[in-house]
Each structure stands twice: as C-alpha cells, then as structure tokens.
Design goal:
This is MoaA/NifB/PqqE/SkfB family radical SAM enzyme. Keywords: Iron, Iron-sulfur, Metal-binding, S-adenosyl-L-methionine. InterPro entries: Aldolase_TIM, Radical_SAM_PqqE_MftC-like, rSAM, rSAM_sf. The chain has helices at 8-11, 18-25, 64-77, 96-105, 123-129, 142-148, 158-171, 199-209, 231-244, 258-264, 314-320, 328-331, 339-349; strands at residues 35-38, 81-84, 109-114, 130-136, 175-181, 184-186, 192-194, 213-217, 253-256, 284-288, 291-293, 305-307. The chain has 365 residues and is α/β, with parallel strands linked by helices. Helix 2 (18-25) crosses helix 13 (339-349) and helix 8 runs parallel beside helix 9. The chain is globular, with a radius of gyration of 20 Å.
Length: 365
C-alpha cells in the first residue's frame, strides 16, 4: 500500500513505528522522537517579505562540529526520519553535506525543505540520499518571484532555482515537490499584489521540470493562523487547480494542503482543540540553534522550549524534558497539520484503531 504524502493518520499504522505510536497514545513517554525537524542555521540568502520566520532569521547556526555530532546523536537515538528545514535555508550551512551523508548512510529517511538556490552545490548527496525535496517557489514567473521571494539585493533568482530543480529532477532517487504558498499584500500606495493568478502556470512548470508533485498552500500570519483571502482569489485558485488536474498522472500529483482545504471550506483562522496534551510531541520535535522546541509551530517560543542543543546532547534533552508543556486547547488554536493525528491516537488508546499496515512506505508522520 502506498500512503498519500499528506495522509498523516494512516502513516501512524506503519509496522516499524506503530508500537511506539500505541505506547504514546496510551500516555507513555517515548524513548526518542520518531521524526526530527532540524534547522542547521537561521541564515537565509533570500529576503521574503512574508517570511513567517522573519523575526528569527540571522541569529545563529550550529558549528559544523556540533551539527555533525547532532547527526550522530540522531542515529544513536534511532530516529526514523529527519527533515532539514529552517527558519533559515538548511543548505546554506557548510556542514549540511556531512549531515546528509551521515543520516543517509545510517538509513534514516531524509526530507529537505529548501528555497532551491543551493541545490547544485549539494546535488550528489541530495540525489543519493533525499527521500524528498520540497522547494518553496510561490511563483511561476521571475517577476512574481521577485515580488515575494527576492534576494537581499531585491533581485529575482527564479531562473537559477528552476535550473537547480531540473538538475535534481535528472539525478534524483527521491521525490521533488514544487510548493506554492498563495500570498497577497497591500503596497504603500494601496494597490494589492498577489501570486494567486499563477497557480495553473506553476503546476504546468512543475510538470515540465520533472517534479513529482505540485502543492498549493494557504498563507499564515505570525501566530500560524490562516490568512483569509477575497472571494475572487478563492474562486480563481479553485478554478486553476481544477484546470491543472489534466496534468496528473502516475508520476505527478496536484496536492491541496490541509491549510488550503480549510481556506476553501471557509473554516476561519481558529481550529479549536479539546485535548490538553499533544501526543505528537512525543513522536516529533524541532531542533534549532536557538533551542529544541516541541514542534515547528512553536519555533522560537520560550514557553515551548525543551533545551539547548548547542550545549546539551539531544539524548539528555529528551530524557529530562517535559513535552507536555504546551496545552493545545490554549496554545495551538491555529490549524495544525497533526490535529487529526492526535485525534487518531485517542482512537488507538480507546481500542478503536485500524489494522497495522503490511509495510513502511513513508515515515514522515
């Protein structure tokens, strides 16, 4: 059985991780996280105006030595999958290549979320070891890219990123994704600029590049609440996605993120949660130069910080930390991608879970 990459609840039933999922669902602490999001650095070569991590950028990085030691700790702990991600651009750190090799050789599934500007320099390791790479594009033309994803000089590096994606598409063993975050903003003169009109064109470009999927997402504010859009934009996006369906094949998917679905269904910015403990924090965590946090939604939040991975081993942090410090009913009223996973673990705890799958296919729960 092949699991849809966004079907996070079904992923819980994979045989190599379900026993740990069941223990956590029953209220036990995990011995180690199953999936780790790792920010090698907070530095980024782009200057995106809508960057949700803008206030956290350019505030430090792991040393190359500590980053390599962290990779070793992840292997020792038995982590199943690691996502190189960031506040910053993960491929900007000179030690990332070594991390990719260490994790890949250990058989740990590896995902990379990147702006794509540095794929070429890291191509051998990425092509060999990455289970997937998702490139944050948010545009289909160089001019729109410059408006929403400029470099520090205010220029567009759109053509370089597209060329890098083509290089990876020609060498990859894993999947390549084209991520399109729908954005709009009001300029100082009162005009509104948006990228929503390039959804279809972006999907066509993704297929031409050799991507495996094209994902459309809704924009967040700094508190991770979904930002509403006009009815005109909503209808335009829906129409373009439907038109893009002709591109789909066994090798290419058009994906609506959970946030876009929430936007389409007019659910509003708030996602209420009745449970007070997030079980997923026992299965996933975020490691950054500024600290270890319960999850990426709380990146930089002192109230959700578990420890300091710069000065402490991740093993020690995990053994002593309290992952229940966040109360979802109070602290996570945004749309969380793992909300349904928490609800599913309640079902597992109550004995109403599903049958365990025959094999593992995607450990990025």
């Amino acid at each position: 059985m092949t699991i849809d990459r966004l079907d996070l609840t079904t992923k819980l039933y994979q045989p190599s991780i379900f026993p740990e999922v069941a223990r956590v669902a029953g209220g036990e602490r995990s011995k180690s996280p199953t999936v780790v999001d790792l920010d090698p650095t907070t530095f980024c070569d782009l200057a995106c105006p809508e960057c949700i991590s803008g206030k956290l950028l350019n505030q430090g990085r792991f040393s190359a030595q500590r980053l390599e030691a962290l990779a070793g700790e992840l292997v020792t702990m038995g982590v199943k999958a690691v996502i190189l991600i960031g506040g910053g651009e993960p491929l900007a750190h000179r030690g990332t290549r070594s991390v990719i090799h260490t994790l890949g050789e250990a058989g740990i599934a590896l995902g990379v979320v990147t702006n794509g500007t540095m794929i070429e320099q890291n191509l051998p390791g990425l092509a060999r070891y990455a289970s997937w790479i998702r490139v944050s594009m948010d545009a289909a033309t160089t001019e729109t890219y410059r408006l929403f994803r400029p470099n520090r000089k205010g220029e567009s590096v759109f053509d370089r990123v597209i060329a890098n994606m083509r290089l990876f598409a020609g060498a990859k063993t894993g999947a390549l994704g084209y991520s399109f975050l729908v954005m709009s903003r009001e300029e100082s003169d009162g005009t509104v600029v948006s990228n929503h009109h390039e959804v279809l064109q972006g999907a066509e470009l993704a297929k031409d590049i050799g991507c495996d999927y094209f994902e459309v997402k809704a924009m967040f504010d700094e508190q991770h609440h979904i930002v509403g859009i006009s009815e005109h934009m909503r209808e335009s996006i829906d129409t373009q996605i439907e038109k893009a369906r002709y591109l789909e094949s066994a090798d290419f998917q058009i994906i609506n993120s959970s946030t876009l679905t929430s936007l389409q269904e007019r659910e509003g910015p708030i996602q209420e949660k009745e449970y007070r403990t997030c079980r997923v924090t026992e299965l996933r965590t975020l490691v950054t130069p500024s600290g270890v946090y319960v999850c990426p939604y709380h990146r930089g939040n002192p109230a959700a910080r578990l420890g300091d991975a710069v000065t402490e081993s991740l093993v020690d942090i995990w053994q002593k930390s309290d992952r229940s410090i966040v109360d979802p009913s109070r602290d996570c009223r945004f749309h969380c991608a793992r909300h349904r996973s928490n609800l599913e673990m309640d079902e597992i705890a109550a004995g109403r879970g599903r049958a365990v799958l025959d094999n593992d296919t995607d450990l990025f729960i």
